[in-house]
Amino acid sequence: MEMTNAILNAKILIVDDQPPNVLLLEKMLSNQGFSFVHSTTDPRPVVDMYLQHHYDLILLDITMPFMNGYEVMAALNEAEEEQTYVPVLVLTAQTDRDTRIKSLEHGAKDFLTKPFDRLEVLTRIRNMLEVRLLHNQVRDQNKILEEKVRERTQELNNTRMEVIQRLGRAAEYRDNETGLHIIRMSKYSQRLASATGMSDIEAEDILNASPMHDIGKIGIPDSILLKPGKLDPEQWNIMQTHTTIGAEILSGHTSSLMKMASEIALAHHEKWDGSGYPKQLSGDEIPLTARIVAIADVFDALTTERPYKKAWTVEDSLKLLHEQKGMHFQADLVDLFTDILDDILDIRQRHMEPDADG
Fold this sequence. Notes:
By secondary structure, the chain is of the alpha/beta class. The protein has 16 helices and five strands. Helix content is 58%, strand content 7%. Strands 2-1-3-4-5 form a five-stranded parallel sheet, sandwiched between helices.
């Protein structure tokens, strides 16, 4: 009977408390050319042996001291890490129906009846190994495909995040010399979100959604957006529409990230006391995400130099946040921001403007 190299290289374990049976099977397999055959007359170490070698086939006796074959199969099934089938070929001198049914219920895939017939032994082993090796090929191929899908998904996610960052920078470049502001404030927002008790996933969503908070500025005329002096009331009303424009640009998508981005764009200029815009929301009416971004955005704007102003010190910026507790900002969030100030300053230092003095 011809055996392929793949089958002959398969890993086989013989478990039988009778040494003559073990020697007979070892001799049959060796003469046939099998190169990886282990055996034991004690069933107790079988699970550890299987976890170490992941045998392609186990020839398992049913009636043994210490543990019978049913108990060994139950232990193997419980210990199998990948939750795949354990390849067991039962060795039994019993041919009754109950033994066969019970063996199948415990995970056996086939039977060998004692005394052994050489041709039957080799045929059943070959058949089981063919199935096992095919299973391994499918499993390995699935792992390869899963890894490719994971890599592709990560690539698409990275691309999406890059597009989001660039969308945010598109708005910032209209009235800000660099895109580092959105990097800092988005990371501040993520850190503050974590401090509120949000999950890592929610905090990461804020990291990725907050850069688009001012995307609506692309709809504001340059004559207003870039005006060096104070805006008149009509111009100010137009400027305020960047919140609704941004929310509209980001609306209509089912993803939680885009919903959050639209929510932040609309409400990040609302104030705790209801004096903000565009809807004059107050207190908890303002989404928590927008309340978080408002603090991060204002702090970074204050501590960063702009053509029209010098950078405020951290102390003065923090003082203003505290002065605005209960008015512009939620008091508890300002306190949390102060508690994590060391982390905020570390983020600021790592993403400093190129010409900043530090």
